[in-house]
Design a protein that fits this description.
Layout (H helix, E strand, L loop, with lengths): L1 H11 L2 E3 L8 E7 L6 H11 L5 E5 L8 H6 L2 E4 L7 H11 L3 E5 L14 H9 L3 E7 L4 E4 L10 H12 L17
Parallel strand pairs: 1-7, 2-5, 2-6, 3-4, 3-5
Antiparallel strand pairs: 6-7
Helix pairs in contact: 1-2, 4-5
């Protein structure tokens, strides 16, 4: 799979940059800007190319038959967005109990335009005591650029959001008008 994923990325003209997240035992990966269905296969291909042990959250409708098993086998974790629950607490506990755990979250929470991002990733990382890794999806350079892990144990939410905005602002989304990190000009 590693070879095939690398070949597909090469044919499509995409590159992986930065440190390999697989070198960090536990982390939350924040992937943005997320505006296209194409972001998903790019993420899965990078997972296989760099052997990144990572899970990702998806809406529960993706996990229904007949194709739900495919998404689960690719690391998907179903999220029922219609019910308010203690999801951040549950995920943080799973991370604490594991030796190796990576979780990818799109902070925009949707491919459609949203005025503000969701902050669950921050609270999960804080509760679990793990770093954040940013994955910039840039269609102008065809790169998935991974940041080094950032310890946020002594960092406020506002400081974290400012760090992310600075990193993601220059990443060109597939559909820039649909992201809070809009660089359409």
């Amino acid at each position: 799979m590693r070879w095939l994923a690398g070949l597909i990325l090469k044919i499509w003209g995409w590159k992986l940059l930065g440190p390999n997240p697989a070198d960090t035992p536990k982390y939350i990966m924040v992937a943005a800007p997320h505006t296209s269905n194409w972001d998903f296969p790019l993420g899965i291909l990078s997972k296989f190319k760099w052997r990144i042990p990572i899970k990702w959250l998806g809406k529960s409708s993706l996990f229904r038959p007949p194709f739900g098993w495919i998404f689960r086998s690719l690391g998907g974790v179903s999220v029922d967005r219609s019910q308010r629950s203690r999801m951040t607490d549950q995920i943080a506990e799973k991370i604490k109990a594991a030796d190796i755990f990576g979780l990818c979250i799109a902070p925009e929470g949707t491919r459609s335009y949203t005025e503000k991002i969701k902050t669950g990733f921050y609270y999960i990382a804080k509760q679990a005591g793990i770093p954040l890794i940013l994955c910039r999806i840039d269609y102008s350079t065809k790169t998935l650029d991974f940041s080094p892990p950032k310890d946020i144990s002594n960092v406020t939410l506002e400081e974290t959001l400012a760090w992310m905005a600075e990193a993601f602002l220059t990443a060109r989304a597939k559909y820039p008008e649909q992201t809070v990190y809009n660089t359409s000009t």
